[in-house]
Design goal:
This protein is mainly beta and 402 residues long. The chain is built from two helices and 18 strands.
Length: 402
């Protein structure tokens, strides 16, 4: 039902777009893929039946409407996957992403929302690639668990509003909302359904034409839907960003956060926790290449039953080797740690490396091949890894000139 509503709303935007062709763009994409996995279940013992082939069709379209003051982009996406030797894997996944930006003379409003119904295993083993529609998502992290028979439904929204008090001083207000539900065909899900919200306010100061600094505070709440517990959080943060050019910049964030669960684990005493955190994010784009990197420590909601501490490193590098041939590399490393004793497993470390080459047969059609290495280490278990090779072909419509 949710999937139908999501795709239906996107189709409604597409229908509206046809009446305003001068202010719209449509970019369809299709990817048909075959892959081989050496240990798709990430079994520490490397079971002999772990080698599995998969067949995937990924269909999406980017729809947009823009004016001189703002722009709205909507991206519905369907993913069909079939692993003949793994019938428990979800065969159909659906996604819908929405981004709106609007600017007045002294203020700006941003709204980012997403819907996803997908296989939990795909969510927790995704690559380090940054989503071009939403590359700075602060809630972008997995659960650290690799469950092959669980489906999750995620609804997320992040509104923000900035007002320029003077030419140098500004005030910003924003929030993050997430609702997560898990489902399995047989039995009970291992992850727990939860709601999470966070509200923040910040004052920003323009240092010069290329640099800004900001300081602010926030409050948050993590609520398990089964009424088995919740956790309140609050913190302060300081951030600095600098753009050397329009195509190269860096942002540094420092923060201090406190998380206070309402139902301490019996026998463990006060479970309140606090810690310093921060991150460095940078991006750059040249004539033939572009890159983006993120490294830091932060706190994010999780299906294990609490907000968790996450140490993360992500990196993506793309380069045009020739006019037709493009190389892409992406890496992600995450180490998740529980903040309260007795909640979930102690730690989960995951990593993934992706390497691929894409050859453009024409301006819109392509063939692609690549390799992925996926690794996991969970407390009390041996390491597990999977080697994935894939070959695909597809179609990508021309992007709007910006």
């Amino acid at each position: 039902r949710h999937l139908g509503l999501a795709i239906g709303s996107a189709c409604g935007l597409a229908a509206a777009a046809t009446g305003h062709a001068a202010q719209t763009y449509v970019q369809p994409q299709m990817d048909l893929r075959v892959e081989n996995n050496s240990n798709i279940d990430l079994d520490p013992d490397g079971s002999p039946d772990g080698s599995v082939e998969g067949y995937i069709a990924d269909l999406q379209v980017l729809l947009g409407y823009y004016t001189q003051r703002g722009e709205t982009s909507v991206r519905p996406r369907l993913r069909f996957q079939n692993y003949p030797d793994r019938d428990q894997r979800e065969k159909t996944e659906g996604f819908l992403d929405w981004v709106t930006r609007y600017q007045w003379e002294r203020s700006q409003f941003n709204f980012i929302a997403s819907y996803a119904q997908e296989d939990s295993f795909n969510y927790d083993t995704r690559s380090g690639e940054f989503d071009p529609l939403d590359p700075t998502n602060p809630l972008d992290s997995g659960s650290g668990r690799f469950l092959t028979d669980e489906t999750q439904t995620k609804i997320e929204a992040r509104p923000s509003y900035t007002f320029d008090i003077t030419q140098r001083l500004s005030a910003s207000f924003g929030g993050q909302l997430r609702s997560m539900d898990y489902d399995v065909d047989v039995g009970e899900p291992e992850n727990v359904d939860y709601d999470f919200w966070r509200a923040n306010a910040e004052l920003g100061w323009v240092l010069d034409e290329r640099s800004n600094i900001g300081i602010g505070g926030y409050i948050s709440q993590y609520d398990v839907k089964s009424d088995s517990g919740d956790s309140d959080g609050y913190g302060i943060g300081l951030n600095y960003d600098h753009n050397w050019t329009e195509l190269m910049g860096v942002e540094v964030v420092l923060g201090y956060e406190v998380n206070d669960p309402s139902d301490p684990t019996p026998g463990q005493g006060d479970q309140k926790s606090s810690s310093l955190g921060g991150s460095i994010a940078a991006f750059g784009e040249g004539e033939l290449s572009k890159w983006r990197v993120l490294v830091g420590q932060r706190y994010a909601p999780n299906g294990n039953g609490r907000v968790r501490q996450i140490d993360q490193l992500r990196f993506q590098y793309d380069r045009d080797l020739t006019q037709r041939l493009t190389f892409r590399s992406a890496a992600r490393y995450e180490s998740q740690k529980q903040l309260q004793a007795g909640i979930g497993s102690d730690t989960e470390d995951t990593a993934r490396l992706d390497l691929s080459l894409r050859w453009m047969l024409s301006r819109k059609w392509f063939v692609q091949g690549g390799y992925s290495y996926i690794w996991q280490q969970e407390a009390g278990r041996d390491d597990a890894y999977n080697n994935r090779f894939f070959l695909s072909g597809g179609y990508r419509g021309l992007a709007r000139e910006r």
